[in-house]
Automatic annotation (TrEMBL):
Protein keywords: Methyltransferase, Transferase
Name of the featured protein: Trans-aconitate 2-methyltransferase
Domain of life: Bacteria
Broadest EC class assigned to this enzyme: transferase
Gene assigned in the entry: tam
Organism: Pseudomonas fluorescens
GO aspect biological process, one term: methylation
Gene Ontology MF annotations: trans-aconitate 2-methyltransferase activity
EC number(s) from the headed UniProt entry: 2.1.1.144
CDD domains: AdoMet_MTases (cd02440)
NCBIfam families from the UniProt entry: PRK01683.1
């Protein structure tokens, strides 16, 4: 299962809110060059275009489907398919924006310093990463993968996400190279009206992908049925059937 723009934007309002909060933390500036890494279907890029009028804004994403959707959404913006882990442009950029993407890449220490080196003086690196690996939602993904008939097929699925470091680690990496570093963690509580089924649909657009992609259609349905039943126990619905999904995220804004 490749990245699906349609699946991702099913919860566009909820997925865009952290991008808005991240953007609001960037110090005011007259940005000329802005790049959106992991731009997805262009929802975060749209915020950047509105926030930095007059700037050249571009978007990169590894998914052809996401780039196609982004181009349809913002035809005046340049979007390119690219592996962010291999991205080697030197810049300089006034803003490098990475919303919900760097958690898929390894070696954050090297990666963050590489991104900072591409900033113009006074430029900002703005990052948001879901911090969900130890939430019930993701623990259950791993448990079901390891204990089902598909265990060998899914042996590597849990390794596609990078373990998050403590805030002090990220701060210590960035501060010697930046004039200002701000790191914080926010837990959102997303109301999903369709209960456990809504939780499954949410993660089908992100965290479940590595677990579903190696499976055939029948296996996927079996895996998802087990996951849905486990989620129903882990996230009890409120009286109206809504599940309030806790979703922690780590934010960083580093200004050179």
């Amino acid at each position: 299962m490749s990245w699906s723009a349609k699946q991702y934007v099913t919860f566009e309002q909820e997925r865009t809110r952290p991008a808005r909060d991240l953007l609001a933390a960037i110090a005011p500036m007259q940005a000329r060059s802005v790049i959106d890494l992991g731009c997805g279907p262009g929802n975060s890029t749209e915020l950047l275009v509105e926030h930095f009028p007059g700037a050249t804004v571009r978007g990169l994403d590894s998914s052809d489907d996401m780039i196609k959707a982004a181009r349809q959404r913002l035809p005046a913006v340049a979007f390119d398919t690219a592996d962010i882990g291999q991205w080697n442009e030197t810049g300089p950029f006034d803003v490098i924006f990475a919303n919900a993407v760097l958690q898929w890449l390894p070696d954050h220490a090297t990666l963050l310093l590489s991104l900072v080196s591409k900033l113009a003086p006074g430029g900002s690196l703005a990052i948001q990463m879901p911090d969900t690996l130890h939430q019930p939602s993701h623990r259950l993904m791993r448990e079901i993968a390891a204990n089902g008939p598909w265990a060998s097929q899914l042996a590597a699925a849990a390794d596609t996400r990078t373990e998050m470091a403590d805030a002090s680690v990220y701060y210590s990496i960035l501060k010697p190279h930046c004039a200002r570093v701000d790191v914080w963690r926010t837990t959102y509580h997303h109301p999903l009206a369709s209960g456990a089924a809504g939780v499954v649909e949410w993660f089908k657009g992100s965290g479940l992908r590595p677990f579903l992609e190696p499976l055939d259609e029948v296996q996927r349905e079996q895996y998802l049925e087990q996951y849905r039943n486990a989620v129903e126990q882990a996230y009890p619905a409120l009286d109206d059937g809504t599940v309030l999904l806790p979703f922690p995220r780590v934010f960083m804004v580093a200004t050179r």
